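Hi all, long-time lurker, first post. I run a small reading group and we've been trying to get comfortable going from sequence to structure in the token notation. Rather than ask abstract questions, I figured I'd post a concrete chain and ask someone more experienced to write out its structure so we can walk through it together at our next meeting. Sequence below, copied exactly:
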Amino acid sequence: MLSFLNALSRRQKGYVFLGIDLALIPVALLFTFVVQSLPMSPIAALWETGPILPYLVASGAGLSLWLGIPQIQLNAYERHAIGLTAIFALLTAGASAVLSALWALPFPPGTHVMFGIIYFLFAVASRAVLYQVVMAVYTSAKPRCRVLIYGAGTTGMQLATALKPHQTIDPVAFVDDNTSLQGMMLAGLPVCPPARIAELVKERRVDRVLLAMPSLSQPKQAQIARHLQKMGLEVQALPSFAQLIGEEALIDKLAPVAPQNFLGRAACDVSLGDACDSYRGKVVLVSGAGGSIGSELCRQVLSCRPAKLVLYELSELALYTVHQELSQLVEGTRIKLVPVLGSVTDPRQVKKVLSDHDVRVVLHAAAYKHVPLVEANPLPGLANNVFGTQTLAREAAETGVERFILVSSDKAVRPTNVMGASKRLAELVIQDLATRFDETIFTMVRFGNVLGSSGSVVPLFQEQVSRGGPVTVTDRRVKRYFMTIREAVQLVLKAGAEARGGEVFVLDMGEPVPIMRLARQVIESAGYTVRDEDNPEGDIEIEITGLRPGEKLSEELTITGDLIGTRHQKIFCAREEKLSEIEVASVLRGLRHALAASDEDAARAVVTRWVEGYRLAEATGTAGAETGLAGGGRGRTP
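-- Answer (accepted) --
Happy to help. Here is the structure in token form:
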């Protein structure tokens, strides 16, 4: 039967509808005579109409085609089509009256009025019955998706009405937490409380739940969706019809607040000024050029008009992306861009690049920086961060590079994680080289977290908010220093230009920011409220997950707290002890043996011996609490 229906063309289906409408004319006449009080029997009355019946059917065919009734699809037969049918019935009744008068048939005027009413009812009923028959055929032949509509408001009602004629989707019920609607029938479907979802799924064999609550906040929709998904249901959400036609903005189009807005202080916009002289007209190499810090270093170095900028990057995608962006910035200038795909741990490639391009300044930002990943993979982290730095710095000195600036981290101060320890060892390597090579100025710049960098906390929080939460914080007491990418890079370039050799520059990052406060600000900036004990009806919850391996409660910027001011008020120089050449050689030798043997314990033992304040990850919680207050990290000496 389904194949027969599918084989019918649109015109053939129109002929079927026309045939049904015309066949109903004698049927409606007969029924009219049945209900009318006539001196003759209904069959005799119908026989009397024999002379006019062909003309009545012919006029009906013409009227039906003129009104376009046969072209109306079954699933589109609604108010407009019913109105056309009423007009058709009225005109057909008028035609029967005119024809009866011409043939002087003995029927009172009321008979024709009754005929029009009965024909209208029969025509509408025939369409309804035919629709049910066709839908039954499709239902029996095709699998249907049975859906539960969550939300019995305007959007839910419109959705149910739109889905009812669908060939493969079958709405079975509404779910709504509005008690005034529960128990009612809307659009032919019952409205049930959310507590009955499991029962409805089982009884009505629900396949999918459609969230029809566009006015509900996105986090709450996400919470409902997660609850339903745990029940094994497929969940889909839809916008309102006003959003679909553009009268209201879609939530997904809202832009997140820029990370620098969460700094908690005025951002420091530093003019490079005379510092540009250290980079102007020279060949500058930026390692890790595709990263957050590396790419910003490239942008700001370009503003100093170097002769050539070498982009050294391990990630092909990151290198492609930054090269495409910077190529547009150097259009119309004489600045050359050189993309180099490679690792800083490869001494042959590093030496070739430095020599071939006659590099004068190296800005070393390449590093594995994500604490949990390096903690789980300590050997690659140490190899890249320590030996990568040593390889690049040694080759820079041997090829006569003028300046080498290491981008370091506050996690290098009394670290409780391998990443921080690797950065401290990299600092010690640079300090050692600074004492042995006079022609190259080696220095390092240490700062804290950078807002908006890859893997940093603000983009993570914003992503969690976009998913409906929860926003995860490791500990209520955690605090961190923050800078914007722009001001951090400006100060790095400024400090690098002022370096005389061996300095550990520390950037003034203001006061440390509680991460709990930052999480709350991110949630509220997105237009939502925090759900907690004081506000149980809030949108997004802040979940405490516990400190991760290697994580501290608070970070420091110096080991001794002894800072010397520089010409720039935001840049300080730290007085810190360094290892001797023999001690650095011992460190590197021990790490090489550990790496060669793939021995993580041996590598950690080397780190524990030579990195001041390093504690194993298991001691992180208490160690972080202690070191966060020790050392007077903000102390200054004028």
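A couple of things your group might point at:
Confidence is low (pLDDT under 50) at residues 247-255, 617-638.
The first helix runs from residue 2 to 7.
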